[in-house]
Amino acid sequence: MKGQCLCGATTFNVELSNHDVHVCHCSICRRQTSGVIMTIDIKQGTLKFDQQAHLSVFNSSEWGERGFCNACGTTLFWRTKDQSYCNINVFSLENIPQDLKLNLEIYIDNKPKFYSFNNETKKMTEAEVVALFSASTE
């Protein structure tokens, strides 16, 4: 599948792992996007950039990093530093699959009280997410 940033300066191809959409409520995602970010998992090693002169990667934690276009600011991906796991901004896809399903909310204990989703989703706390990714990087 093809994807790109808002201005088109950063383009990529990717293979999706599934059509499950995840929402992150962590303070970094909320600050970065002025809301939540909605992501979709990709198959390991399939994120390939066609145009990447404006791609920047931000070291956001001990085990994670975020990719974005430094020309327009579009958030493109979050991945573990060893690149064993990566998800992309679902709205960066040129053709969004019609059968997407919101199925997971992470950092649920960081979610502000002024919004909520109607969907029934699996929910993970910050501690559960940190434990999951910390275990995979040891």
Automatic annotation (TrEMBL):
Lyase recorded as keyword? yes
A single Pfam family, by name?
A: GFA
Give the InterPro entries listed for this entry.
CENP-V/GFA, Mss4-like_sf
PROSITE patterns listed in its UniProt record: CENP_V_GFA (PS51891)
Q: Name one GO molecular function term.
A: metal ion binding
Q: What is this protein called?
A: GFA family protein
Which keywords does UniProt give here?
Lyase, Metal-binding, Zinc
CENP-V/GFA domain residues = 1-108
Which family does the UniProt entry place this protein in? Belongs to the Gfa family.
Keyword Metal-binding included in the entry's annotation: yes
